């Protein structure tokens, strides 16, 4: 609802009241319409201030209403009525004014913001555009380039930037409502002719056609198939070229296509999934709302290789004291330099003062004795990690949480090396650890819910999307990646090229195809794991049995490349060719193509035409099938957890909602039918056999996601 009151004898104060973010629900919109009418009819009221309760102006349209039968007064006429009012309307912006919230403020004649406020039009991140007049008013207010930037990126600006851009008229460090009330009194009775943004001409943009062509090209390149950024450019172009009323018509048409698109549904699902993963639960009954995290003031990191350095930076940036331990002196010296460089660059990027140095370095593991929480980040080797955990169990103070940054190893086994297995959890960071948003918090059967809660809370403090997952080989993310990679290798054997497979995945929306990623992360990483698993035979034997290992189809292609010293970017050669070791730009490699041809001949394989659809179905459906298996085993509590992991850690295109959501969009019956089809053709590939949960869901007609 919206509360109306008369303050300072002549100011009508309208307070938006819809916790937690004053989203513009049907009830709130009705409340605003009623309150505005009251204010305009009351002769005592000479000016009006609109504010939000609980320190937040407005988080925009109520996203939960999208996709339902929208009731209540629509936003556009409501904002129009505010702009047309004959009494000054002033927005008092505290906290956030986002999306429809900012559009409401743009309908007001003046905007006063608190210095800590954030403003923006983030609709594009929800697969929409600012369609309550935002795409037409903002360019008229601040010019086309600045408006286009805000609308196509959805970025939030600070009050200071908003003032500089001309979005707000005044910024205050004091009580925003008081400042707005005072301001509104000062302008009461003045003409409002020059204050209605919809009547402004759009500032002239030189070389309009070239400007928008370039903008469109840029957006199409970075959008990777997302349609909302493209529609945003079209809407701003309408503002720059059409009268306001026609621009509004265009805004409405563009919004109509976006609103009903699968992409908008997927992006809105991601918005809520990102928040839902914070409400974790474990099979043993641990829950986010009943488990109290332990306080963490000092954290320690053991091992200062690439991951350990990133984790140290991420911890230091949260303001914690950090003890960083590395037993090799040379590595320690290099790490010190690298960490301080990363902290400095991070501060420059954020426009903040460098993080005060709260890091203590040591060569001795005894230095972690006082830490509340330790993150072990030594080399991915079980024997080494076992040793470190036994030492930690002796050295650490009672109650200290012991975490391992492993991407696949058994958490429970490591816990068994300690005196207090309930204090052990996995914290699987993604490289670079101070940049990547995802954190898998892995609980073993003996991890206490307090240990999970502590790691989840620390992840949140570090700005991560933390997802609690159960203990199994590869946890959720890497476990699902295995069948995906496997299928990509098999497709090469059957006739595809790395270029074809990567192109299909990049057209789907991944920033990089599977072979480019493999070159980037290093082919030797997987080789080492496969060797440890006893999968690798050196040299190449021939015939189908040479490609069956441990009872299932196996492709030795990756191993053969490694035997040639082709480890990817770091050696300048992998699935692609690079201009030098460490080079970043991939080129097609004729050697690789000949190698594949020779390999097929040797193995008696006949190359056939593989198309993009087959690449997507085999790689993605195999990955999704593993996701269903993970759900069935209770390793992930819900599909949102898997989707968040893939969107925030594995480059899954957000506008496709994550693998499990995508499966729902495609239709579970279709996914199952295609898996069955491929499994019949490849009975030695168990990852193509639909798992029982998928079969049960299809048989019952049940959906995995209520949004679909
Ligand atoms: C014609 C169409 C016109 C306009 C279109 C729009 O306006 S689309 C909406 C545009 N607005 C946004 O995208 C803002 C989304 N919200 C946020 O960015 C943040 O929530 C915000 C406002 C910065 C507050 O952040 P904070 O970290 O404090 O809270 P949190 O994100 O955890 O949110 C708290 C709960 O509120 C729910 N919520 C937030 N915004 C909305 C919204 N616009 N509609 C509905 N619900 C919203 C959020 O989901 C959280 O609830 P939970 O149950 O935990 O999911």
From TrEMBL:
Residues of the 3-hydroxyacyl-CoA dehydrogenase C-terminal domain: 474-578, 615-702
Subunit structure: Monomer.
Main location: other
GO BP terms: fatty acid beta-oxidation
Recorded family membership: In the N-terminal section; belongs to the enoyl-CoA hydratase/isomerase family. Belongs to the enoyl-CoA hydratase/isomerase family.
GO terms for MF: (3S)-3-hydroxyacyl-CoA dehydrogenase (NAD+) activity; delta(3)-delta(2)-enoyl-CoA isomerase activity; enoyl-CoA hydratase activity; NAD+ binding
Domain 3-hydroxyacyl-CoA dehydrogenase NAD binding: residue ranges: 299-471
InterPro entries: 3-OHacyl-CoA_DH_CS, 3-OHacyl-CoA_DH_NAD-bd, 3HC_DH_C, 6-PGluconate_DH-like_C_sf, ClpP/crotonase-like_dom_sf, Enoyl-CoA_hyd/isom_CS, Enoyl-CoA_hydra/iso, NAD(P)-bd_dom_sf
Keyword Cell membrane: no
Species, as recorded: Mola mola
Localization (cell): Peroxisome
Keyword annotations of the record: Fatty acid metabolism, Isomerase, Lipid metabolism, Lyase, Multifunctional enzyme, NAD, Oxidoreductase, Peroxisome
Organism phylogeny: Eukaryota, Metazoa, Chordata, Craniata, Vertebrata
Keyword Iron among UniProt keywords: no
One Gene Ontology cellular component: peroxisome
PANTHER family listed in its UniProt record: 3-HYDROXYACYL-COA DEHYROGENASE (PTHR23309), PEROXISOMAL BIFUNCTIONAL ENZYME (PTHR23309:SF49)
Pfam families associated with the record: 3HCDH, 3HCDH_N, ECH_1
Pathway(s) of this molecule: Lipid metabolism; fatty acid beta-oxidation
Name of the molecule in the record: Peroxisomal bifunctional enzyme
Enzyme Commission number, as recorded: 1.1.1.35, 4.2.1.17, 5.3.3.8
Catalytic reaction equation(s): (3S)-hydroxyhexanoyl-CoA = (2E)-hexenoyl-CoA + H2O; a (3Z)-enoyl-CoA = a 4-saturated (2E)-enoyl-CoA; (3E,5Z)-octadienoyl-CoA = (2E,5Z)-octadienoyl-CoA; (3Z)-hexenoyl-CoA = (2E)-hexenoyl-CoA
């Amino acid at each position: 609802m919206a509360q109306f009151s008369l303050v300072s004898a002549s100011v009508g104060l309208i307070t938006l009241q819809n916790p937690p973010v004053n989203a513009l629900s049907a009830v709130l919109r009705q409340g605003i319409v009623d309150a505005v009418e009251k204010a305009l009819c009351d002769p005592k009221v000479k000016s009006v201030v609109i504010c939000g309760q609980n320190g937040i102006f407005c988080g925009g349209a109520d996203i939960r209403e999208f996709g339902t039968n929208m009731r209540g007064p629509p936003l556009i006429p409501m904002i129009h009525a505010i702009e047309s009012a004959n009494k000054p309307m002033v927005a008092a912006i505290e906290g956030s004014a986002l999306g429809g919230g900012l559009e409401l403020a743009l309908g007001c004649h003046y905007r006063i913001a608190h210095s800590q406020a954030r403003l923006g039009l983030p609709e594009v991140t929800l697969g929409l555009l600012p369609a309550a007049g935002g795409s037409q008013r903002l360019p008229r207010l601040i010019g086309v380039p600045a408006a286009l930037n805000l609308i196509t990126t959805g970025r939030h600006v600070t009050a200071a930037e908003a003032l500089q851009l001309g979005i707000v008229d005044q910024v205050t460090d004091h009580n925003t409502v008081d400042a707005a009330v005072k301001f509104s009194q000062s302008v009461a009775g003045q003409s409002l002719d020059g204050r209605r943004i919809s009547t402004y001409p759009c500032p002239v943009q030189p070389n309009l056609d070239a400007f928008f062509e370039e903008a469109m090209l840029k957006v199409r390149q970075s959008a990777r198939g997302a349609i909302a950024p493209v529609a945003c450019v079209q809407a701003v172009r309408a503002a720059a070229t059409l009268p306001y009323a026609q621009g509004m018509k265009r805004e409405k048409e563009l919004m109509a296509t976006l609103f009903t698109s699968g992409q908008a549904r997927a992006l809105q699902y991601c918005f809520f999934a990102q928040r839902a993963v914070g409400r974790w639960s474990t099979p043993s009954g641990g829950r986010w709302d009943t488990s109290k995290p332990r306080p963490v003031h000092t954290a320690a990191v053991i091992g200062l290789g690439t991951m350990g350095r990133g984790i140290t930076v991420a911890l230091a940036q949260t303001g914690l004291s950090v003890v960083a331990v590395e037993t090799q002196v040379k590595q320690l010296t290099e790490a010190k330099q690298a960490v301080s460089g990363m902290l400095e660059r991070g501060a420059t990027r954020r426009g903040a003062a460098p993080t005060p140095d709260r890091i203590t370095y040591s060569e001795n593991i005894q230095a972690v004795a006082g830490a509340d929480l330790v993150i072990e980040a030594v080399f991915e080797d079980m024997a080494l990690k076992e040793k470190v955990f036994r030492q930690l169990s002796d050295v650490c103070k009672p109650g200290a949480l012991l975490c391992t940054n492993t991407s696949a190893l058994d958490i429970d086994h490591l816990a068994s090396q300690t005196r207090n297995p309930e204090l052990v959890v996995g914290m699987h960071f993604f490289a670079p650890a101070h940049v990547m948003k995802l954190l898998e918090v892995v609980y073993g059967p003996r991890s206490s819910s307090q240990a999970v809660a502590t790691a989840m809370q620390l992840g949140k403090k570090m700005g991560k999307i933390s997802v609690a997952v159960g203990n199994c080989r590869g946890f959720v993310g890497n476990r699902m990646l295995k069948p995906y990679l496997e299928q990509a290798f098999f497709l090469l054997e059957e006739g595809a090229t790395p270029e074809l497979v990567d192109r299909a995945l990049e057209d789907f929306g991944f920033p990089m195809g599977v072979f480019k990623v493999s070159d980037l992360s290093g082919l030797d990483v997987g080789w080492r794991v496969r060797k440890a698993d006893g999968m690798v035979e050196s040299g190449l034997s021939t015939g189908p049995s040479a490609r069956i290992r441990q009872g299932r189809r196996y492709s030795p292609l990756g191993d053969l490349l490694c035997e040639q010293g082709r480890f990817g970017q770091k050696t300048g050669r992998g699935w692609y060719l690079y201009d030098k070791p460490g080079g970043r730009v991939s080129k097609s490699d004729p050697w690789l193509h000949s190698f594949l041809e020779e390999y097929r001949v040797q193995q008696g394989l006949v190359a056939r035409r593989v198309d993009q659809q087959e690449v997507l179905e085999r790689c993605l459906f195999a990955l999704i099938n593993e996701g269903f298996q993970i759900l069935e085993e209770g390793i992930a509590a819900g599909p949102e957890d898997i989707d968040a992991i893939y969107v925030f850690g594995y480059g899954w295109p957000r506008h496709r909602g994550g693998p499990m959501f995508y499966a729902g969009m495609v239709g579970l019956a279709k996914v199952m039918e295609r898996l069955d089809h491929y499994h019949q053709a490849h009975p030695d590939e168990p990852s193509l056999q639909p798992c029982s949960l998928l079969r049960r869901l299809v048989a019952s007609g049940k959906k995995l996601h209520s949004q679909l």
